[in-house]
Amino acid sequence: MHVLVTGGAGYIGSHTCLCLLEEGFSVTVIDNFCNSSPEALRRVQALAGRSLTLIKGDVRDAATLDAAFAGPRIDAVIHFAGLKAVGESVAEPMLYYDNNVAGTFNLLQAMQRAKVSTVVFSSSATVYGDPAPEDLPLEETSPTGITHSPYATSKWMVERCLADLHTAQPQWRIARLRYFNPVGAHPSGRIGENPSGTPNNLMPFISQVACGTRPMLSIFGGDYPTHDGTGVRDYIHVMDLAEGHVATLKYLANRPNGDLLTLNLGTGQGCSVLDVVKAFEAASGQTVPYQIVARRPGDVPAYYADSTQAQELLHWKAKRTLHDMCADTWRWQAANPKGYASE
Ligand code: NAD
Ligand code: WQD
């Protein structure tokens, strides 16, 4: 099976490409490297002992996509390419609608021209908005669409578009995967998350504090209605997430009459910011100095997934622990303090 992976050089894409190569899939990546480095894919190929095809290009460019589909027959697409910084999306909404929504429409139109109708889309738990405590754990049928950022709205819009496409053309095989909070790195320490500038997300910030790049973690809010007052999330190891994509492709391959899957990919466990700090200190042997500051605007107190649907349909389950997530993040961070620019 030949898979086109858009955004394959990015954090989740690179780990997924490695799993695909290890499972015997042929892989072509399209990436414009706006938030990634070709070094990630060099390392993926070295780890896998197999090569992939790389096209440097933009999913908003129809000619690039048509050229990709004109090569060796592509059986399925995993669509990671997009922008993901929530705060930036508030400041630059058109950038987000252009990359995430127009980019996806362009890809789906190119797929129609090429008669490729299997697609796995990177959605996000953010489509659930600000869930009420009684809505936890979040099920796929929990309310969506009351979004709080253009980023979240862009994911929700694409989800709707994919559902409409499936209604009109039920032979399409579509998976809308709602990731919770991906963290961690490949256990080799060779590939991992490579944020540019100040990390927005908790785990890369903690790991940069632990290695001395930043002096202290600011914990956004200590007065949430959670077990220790700090925000609760469902952190999932990026390798579990990557394996979830392989399981999804295998599932869709056996749906000859089409399907529209909507699945949460999480662990089902809620961990607080302080839980993560303590687990990171234990896994790394480093101290993570922190201060509790005001809540971050737009943050919700708690959310975590009900992932039983993914378990039942895909025979997939997130199996790595919070300790694994922290130990693997630290191995990557310690060996690559400047990410892919370290070498
Ligand atoms: P990432 O930024 O590391 O990877 C995205 C990749 O897409 C990068 O390599 C980037 O260069 C590329 N890209 C962006 N716009 C492009 C375009 N127009 N054309 C071609 N390539 C383009 O992000 P990630 O964490 O790997 O996330 C992958 C996907 O998963 C994104 O769609 C993101 O919204 C979604 N997602 C991420 C998270 C998370 O917390 N990391 C959570 C839920 C959903
Ligand atoms: C986690 C917890 C923060 C940084 C975001 C997106 C979401 C999805 C995943 C793409 C929260 C706290 C964080 C820090 C802190 N991405 N925190 N100090 O906000 O749950 O989700 O990434 O789809 O759409 O919104 O993740 O890692 O930023 O925060 O205290 O320096 O850590 O308040 O409780 P979040 P996060």
Q: State the secondary-structure class.
A: alpha/beta
Strand order of the largest sheet: 3-2-1-4-5-6-11
- Number of alpha- plus pi-helical segments: 11
Order of helices and strands: EHEHEHEHHEHEEHEEEHEEHEHH
Q: State the CATH superfamily name.
A: NAD(P)-binding Rossmann-like Domain
CATH architecture: 3-Layer(aba) Sandwich
Structural domain tally: 1
Give the % helix.
25-40%
Mean pLDDT: 97
Largest sheet features? 7 strands, parallel
- Provide the CATH top-level class: Alpha Beta
Rounded to the nearest angstrom, the distance between the terminal CA atoms is 33 Å
Radius of gyration of CA atoms, rounded to a whole number: 19 Å
Q: How would you sum up the global shape?
A: globular
Strand element count: 13
Ligands bound here? nicotinamide-adenine-dinucleotide, UDP-4-deoxy-4-formamido-beta-L-arabinopyranose
Uncertain regions: pLDDT < 50 for 5+ in a row? Answer: none
CATH topology: Rossmann fold
Beta strand %: 15-25%
What's the short version?
With about 350 residues, the chain is α/β, with parallel strands linked by helices. It has eleven helices and 13 strands. It has helices at about 10-20, 40-50, 60-70, 85-90, 95-115, 150-170, 200-210, 240-255, 275-285, 310-315, 320-335; strands spanning about 1-5, 25-30, 55, 75-80, 120-125, 175-180, 180-185, 215-220, 230-235, 235, 260-265, 270, 290-295.
Task: Describe it.
The protein has 343 residues and is of the alpha/beta class. The protein has one domain: 3-Layer(aba) Sandwich (Rossmann fold). The protein contains 11 helices and 13 strands. It has helices spanning 11-22, 38-48, 62-70, 86-91, 93-114, 150-168, 202-210, 238-253, 273-284, 308-314, 322-335, and strands at 2-6, 26-31, 53-56, 76-79, 118-124, 173-179, 181-183, 217-220, 232-233, 235-237, 259-265, 271-272, 290-293. It has a 7-stranded parallel beta sheet, with helices on both faces. The chain has a two-stranded parallel sheet with strand order 7-10. UDP-4-deoxy-4-formamido-beta-L-arabinopyranose (WQD) is lined by residues 84, 86, 124, 126, 181, 200-202, 205, 217-220, 231, 233, 273, 296, 299.
